[in-house]
Every structure is written in C-alpha cells, then in structure tokens.
Amino acid sequence: MKAKSFCLKIKTESAPQFIDITEWVGECVAKSKVSNGFAVIFSKHTTASVKINENEPLLLEDMTRFLEQLSPRDGAYQHNDFTIRTVNMNPDESPNGHAHLQHLLLGTSETVPIIDGSVQFGRYQSVFFIELDHPRDREVMVQVVGD
Fold first, then answer.
1. What is the DSSP-derived secondary structure letter of residue 13?
2. Does the pTM exceed 0.85?
3. What is the CB neighbour count within 10 angstroms for residue 79?
4. Domain residues of the chain, as ranges?
C-alpha cells in the first residue's frame, strides 16, 4: 500500500464561490500511480469546503442562494462581535460567523474510490472547492492511498 499527497493553492475571487477541481483530482490520481484505492480531497480551512455535486450553472446559483438563506452574511453571530470575543483573534479578523456555519453543514472533505487507476465519479459528479468567507489564498489537499 502506498500514499501520495498533493496540495493545490487556490486564489478565490468571491464568496460563495464554487471552484471545480475535478480535473486536478484526476491528475493527482494519475501521478500517484495508484491502481486501486481511494482519494481524500480535504479543505485546510474552517470557512471553505469540499463537496461533490453537479456542475450546472443554474444549480450553482441555487446552491449559492441556499447557503445565503441558511446562514446570511449579515446575520447576528456572536463570533462576529469582536467586543466580546477573546479567542482566535487576528489583527485582520473578519466577521465570518456565517461562513463557519455554512462550513458546519458542508463539511471538510470527500472520499472517492479509485478502480483500475481511474477515479470513479458518477456521470454528473464534480468536485468543488467552495469559498464561503471572502477572497483570499487557500489550499486544498488530495491524498491518494492504495496499491
């Protein structure tokens, strides 16, 4: 059994933003030389997620609207009240309680099977890195494990 890790640096432009990384995941699997196993795609952030869904423009608009309705940017979040918050404060801290709550629902990672050297995505499945907070530099990891 072997494991190979890859890191993709992404510069996001908006939020929410759905970035299709399916092709990159396939390239990682090919470079890994793993024939049978799995790939874990992992966001290194608490305000950006990785999810599998269909890459259809109107659906992406629906998903964006859904996230904003569930946890609106202008909602009242204690995490955003810098007069009472004392933990994990940075000089450039942004009011991003909404993004943390959206991430709570979406999660951090996806796992996909590899069979005969090929990632086994369904017909309409794409892997998205989803920016939930604001534009910035981000990282997503892929670890490919198998024989």
1. -
2. yes
3. 17
4. 2-73+95-146
